[in-house]
Structure formats: structure tokens, C-alpha cells
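Hi everyone,

Forwarding the result from last night's run.
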Amino acid sequence: MSSKAGRYSALLMLFAGATGVTAFAPFGWFPVAALSLALLFDQWLRDSPRTAFRHGLLFGAGFFGVGISWVFISIKVYGHVAAPVAILITLGLIAFLSLYPALLGYFLVRAFRTFTPAALLVAMPSGWVVAEWLRGWVFSGFPWLTVGTSQIDGPLGGYAPVLGVFGTSLTVALSAALLVAVFRGWYRLPGLVLLLLLWGGGQLLGNIQWTEPRGDALQVALVQGNISQDDKWAPENLLSTFTRYSELTFDEADVDLVVWPETAIPAFHDQVEDSFIAYLETELEKTGISLLTGIPVLERENWEYYNAVMSLGGEQAFYYKQHLVPYGEYLPLRWLIGNTLDALAVPNADFSSGGPSQTLLQAAGYPVSSSICYEVVFGEQIIRDLPEAAMLVNISNDAWFGDSLAPHQHLEMARLRAKETGRPMLRATNTGISAVIDHEGRIVEQSPQFEIAVIRAAVVPMQGATPYVLLGNTPIVVFIIACLLLCWLVCRRKQGDRGQGSLLHK
């Protein structure tokens, strides 16, 4: 490859990765996901293992460099970390995530050497989804920008209740491989037919109702206090915070359930139990409202504290956050690194994790599946509470993201969880975007960002189970790994047969 061609292909991969982000919210140009991957797959067909690694790394740099640029805002602006350190951390995360497509390209090209049409259509899509799945759990996981999420408003989104987000990613990656095959003239007509069947099948699946109503519609209200991150934890602002949320809640009439955001009560439970919480319980009993709110809980016996959801207006109960954010809520390998990272001023870095088998909270007479902030991006965690739960509730504080792509991307992932499970989602955030999402992942009502708001809607509790709720990610992961291995074995055997044939011919 000439140096000029090398520069062109490098720029093309950066461009392909960066433009792939436009498939996700707030842009929502869902076909771009397949087109972006098609450019990467087509390039890998011409690459050596080393250049495949480089092109995968460049694709990842464009994809994650644009898609998670908000990490710098979270660290620098709201984490109060020095700009040079924040830049290094952000670039380090982007580089680490870019290794997934880079290593995938290297191993695919090294393993298959020469790609047949079958290897293109099987190995590349399967490999892509294996890489996404690994990214979703290695080092506690970071499944942000999983390409299946981008299809929430497209025909391929119909696969989500059946196959989950990774199965939906497989349909995107297979679409990309089919586009490459058609472009190269490999089985052009069959390729087009398969592409139409794939997208048409998703459209048909999207018309199936996998779950059914469990009762009458509830009137719900999501309260968005819009309290800035700098003001949130200041002791002198505690009373005004309580006043704002109370007035916004009890000014509402004919409401069954109210949801407040993550740590809407910015004080430990035991510090306000006899004052503000006692007042809330009295008012809730008068009005008949159920309340779910975020609050930190300190267990003073063992000095562990939790990021929690508390239910009031009935039996007081708690959900403790299970999937903590690395470096945001806990420090990985704290036993090893000790206090060496204290200079980074990592906030809230010592939360404890709640157990995986917690009793579901009850709200307005129904069991709800609770998640806090980042937890909503993990589909398999959400389905643990199903089919028992009638609704999904996610509370968050997206003030950490500022005015960036992240709140839109976060909302899109919440929408996919609703579609995967066939359950409505109530998502209350501090600064937006708060939203009521129906059981098909459609937004019923949403708030503006950075404004005090109360959004109301009628929500129907649901029952039943989608195929994804029943089966989880295991079948699709086993399937793609099996496809990848089988394709490799078949290709190796054919290459061996060709090698023997050439020796005999000589």
C-alpha cells in the first residue's frame, strides 16, 4: 500500500468511526450504523493483520473520540480534576475502548487470511458482537454505544424484545457485511434479498405485542429539580432543595406515583429520617401518593454507604445500587493502590455495592424494577427483576454530563431497556432529560434540559415476558461464538485442502 493510499484509508476509518456516532441520539440516523461498519469491514478485507489493527484503532478513535467526549466534562467540570489530568484520563479511556475493534481486526485477518463471502457474512458480524459483549463486562463493563441501541427507532429495533441489544447489534453488523458483499458483486441479488428480509423481519417483529396490561393506567409525575452539581451538596442549600421538591410534588393533584431523581435528598437517610422523611410520610398518607426517590444510605454499624432508591407512601423500603461506576462511585483495586489516587479528587469513590437479589420495591400497588443512573445500560441486570416487575424505574443525575451527547445517549439506552422487556420506563433525572417511556420504547412525555420541570403521563403496568426476558444474552452469545469458531474451522480446512491440492499438482 502506497503512503498516499495509507493516509487516505486512515482518514476514511477515522471518518467512518466518527460518523457512526450519528446513528445514536440525539441524531438518530440509524442506517449510518450499518454504513459505518460496512466501511470498516470492507477495509479489513484488503488488510494485513497489522494494518487491520491500525485501521480498527483509528475507527475506534473516531467512534469513541466523538461518542464519549463527554467524559472530559464529567471529570474536569464536575469532578474538579485538573484539565491536563482530565484530558489524559479521557484519552486513555478512548484508547482502551479503541483496542476492541483494533484487536478484532487483527485476529480476524490473521485467523482467516483470505476472506470468502461466507467468512465475511459470518465471521465479521459475529466478531463485532463478541467484541461488544466483551466490552460490556470486562473490568465491570462499558457497553456505551453498543450499535444495537442505535436501532430503537428503526426496523431492526424489532429484534430487541427477542434477541436483546447484542442480537440487535448482530443484525446491524450483518447488514454491514451484506452491503459489502453487494458492493463487491458477491451474490449481489441474494445479498439484496437477504438484506430486505433482515430489515423486513425486524419491522414485522416490531408489530408483535409481547406483553399485556396488568391493570388500569396510573397517573405518574416525574419531578426534575434542576439543582446544579455545585449547589447540590452544599449544606446551606439543603432546606431549599427539600422545599423545591416538596412543593413540586404536593402541588400536583390526582397523582398515583411520583418519582424524584438520584440523590434528590442530598443527605444520609438517618440524618433526615425524623425530620424531612417523617414530614413526607405524613403528606403522602394524606394525598395517597407513592413516592420513589434517590437518597444515600449510611449503615453506621459497618460504616458502609449506598446509593439508594427509597419507596415511601406505603412500606418504607430501599434498593441499593449494584453496578457502581468505576472511579465515580468506587476505586477499582483500592486494596492495591491505597490512597494514591486521592490527588485526582475522585468524588463519592467509596460507595458499597448492593446485592443482586434484592426485594423489589412496591409503588402504587405494583412491584417495580429499580435502577440508578449507569445501571440502565446493562440489559441483563434489568431483566433479573422480570417478569415480576410491572414497571421499570430509573433515577439519574445527568448533571454530571453537562450539555453534551451523554444525556441523549443515556435516554436512548433506557428506551431500549423498555423495548427489550415490554415494560414502561419512568426515568427521573436532576437536570434532564426526564422521560416517561412506554412498553415499546417510545417517549410519551419528556422534559427540557436544565429547567425545573414536572412531567405527567398515564402509564399502564404490564405483565408477561418477552423472549429476551426469558432467555437473556446467553443464547445469542453462544450462537455468535459458535458461528465464529465453526467458520474458522471450515475456512482452515478449505485452505488446507487447497494447499494439499497445489502440492499434488506440483
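Residues 474-505 form the longest helix (32 residues).

Cheers,
N.
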